Amino acid sequence: xxxxxxxxxxxxxxxxxxxxxxxxxxxxxxxxxxxxxxxxxxxxxxxxxxxxxxxxxxxxxxxxxxxxxxxxxxxxxxxxxxxxxxxxxxxxxxxxxxxxxxxxxxxxxxxxxxxxxxxxxxxxxxxxxxxxxxxxxxxxxxxxxxxxxxxxxxxxxxxxxxxxxxxxxxxxxxxxxxxxxxxxxxxxxxxxxxxxxxxxxxxxxxxxxxxxxxxxxxxxxxxxxxxxxxxxxxxxxxxxxxxxxxxxxxxxxxxxxxxxxxxxxxxxxxxxxxxxxxxxxxxxxxxxxxxxxxxxxxxxxxxxxxxxxxxxxxxxxxxxxxxxxxxxxxxxxxxxxxxxxxxxxxxxxxxxxxxxxxxxxxxxxxxxxxxxxxxxxxxxxxxxxxxxxxxxxxxxxxxxxxxxxxxxxxxxxxxxxxxxxxxxxxxxxxxxxxxxxxxxxxxxxxxxxxxxxxxxxxxxxxxxxxxxx
Amino acid sequence: xxxxxxxxxxxxxxxxxxxxxxxxxxxxxxxxxxxxxxxxxxxxxxxxxxxxxxxxxxxxxxxxxxxxxxxxxxxxxxxxxxxxxxxxxxxxxxxxxxxxxxxxxxxxxxxxxxxxxxxxxxxxxxxxxxxxxxxxxxxxxxxxxxxxxxxxxxxxxxxxxxxxxxxxxxxxxxxxxxxxxxxxxxxxxxxxxxxxxxxxxxxxxxxxxxxxxxxxxxxxxxxxxxxxxxxxxxxxxxxxxxxxxxxxxxxxxxxxxxxxxxxxxxxxxxxxxxxxxxxxxxxxx
Lengths: 469, 285
Ligand code: SF4
Prior knowledge:
heterodimer, A: Fumarate Reductase Iron-sulfur Protein, Chain B, domain 2, 6-stranded parallel sheet, 4-stranded mixed sheet, B: alpha/beta, Rossmann fold, 4-stranded parallel sheet, 11% strand
């Protein structure tokens, strides 16, 4: 039986235009990143520095979160804790209801995607409008993001032109990117003024100063967090860093790894609501800190590295699997290599365990990750978690163990650790090759069957008299 | 390290069964440099297939039977980045906390991938005796990223006066083999290898060489299935052939795929992947 994931893959591989969009976009992003790091030794150094900053933060996560809460509270920002996405949604809803709010304008936030916030609010009669251009496009198209940094990367300019034309017939048809952007700006401008509440994500939360940092290119993040009367920020508990001085190196490696920009157009630091005498800014600021399985990941000393992620997207840009199947095939909020390690740990290996197979372990992701998450090593670990027999802390552990497969590996292991058996098997295989099944269809659909040699290397070397010990 | 008198050779299971000539050639290359080779006949497989599938106990049982085969303190040369990477970087993980961890670490510390050994330890000097030939090189991901020895195969080929290297686009991208990945996710694997084939064909090379049998079996098998395959060879076999024949023109030894190369237009997928179409401007957060 073909799994749901493979069905998605088969469908998406059969879309040549979308595939070409991904290929072109990923090639471009890879090149732009490369251009930002001309000196490999310097890159090595700053990756180590970024890794150290994130590892340090995680090593004292509980203390830093307490410090963050204390500082934010002292700065006048309300802090809310949510163990589940349901609690996070309820928290946002409660704030909205307190203010009798009916409309929400959103800057880009992957955590809000994780929460399914838009659907949740919609069900409670609240309009949530995306203001990031990519997210705005996807909201019009009723599609989820396909990339964590560039959510609409699967769409071509022409796709967007058609979509705008269909949704906004008053605006003249154009395929010009600047004109399309301008059209979206005009539509959104009014919404910023009329929205009751603004919502954003957070890139870094500084424990030392109680500062929320937001990295963006369009200015919509700044608008969402300053124009409406109330600003709600949502983020995962792992986003905290210890010191203010941690920000410059992290920010620099983030933008260079993500989009190949030395810095983004906007960088927002939010440290309090509007103070008396200030001309702008929200009157109230809230931070919702979401756990959603992160504490559990935190409890495993190896898998903990997953939480170092700064969501740059470089791992997916460089992943040959992601580039071909696209973000939607994964069926998860976070696609690509980070999704492969993060999603099964959150939802369970019984739910998303197959994603651990969506990698050749080629190592391209681990090679570019700015915080040196050993992604292939963690994929291997999760494959082990999927089939292990004893219990562990990863949800769904052992759920991928199939009797037949386990028996096959056992038999293989036995023969390969008993040389006489292995050699007999290998010799027999080379002699009997005419009788081997030639239709191992998974392999032979696009490849000829491997031809066994007439004599094994063992036999050849014995004949040649090569020493055995 | 300085040149040793004797080395162990670990042939790998794919070379054992499918490309034994590569193993023989590798040993001949080493012996020609005045180094003796020991091939423990009890060797089987490094255990990687089970390791990468999550079956760690099964992988360890096999690995355990292998580390016992290399008792002398001499290098272990492996004609595969992938199997060398398994022993060098993953044995320490696989044996962490086990009673024989020290032995596994000691073995891991002596592992060399073949091209790495030829260049870094033997400082081999090659004299090209072959006719002019154009080759494309596929470097395995494990040689590149796990072992960090991707440039050694290039160094070796650069010594051959009549060999012209042609570079395919996206050379560093994985061929889609990934061991059991090829059968677990056959559709993704197929799309990867077909694009890899297209980029290699586009170079118009006469020959494809690489240092890993898995990639060669994957890429070569896909070309054979299409027909008019570019013959592929393990680097050891290619080097031995180029430097050990007096006057015989190529191909001196029967190549695995002696289909004659004919001009073949790029297929549709290649044309697509090579040119691409306009994507949208990314919108960073
Ligand atoms: S895992 Fe690394 S490369 Fe991938 S998004 Fe996170 S930080 Fe970036």
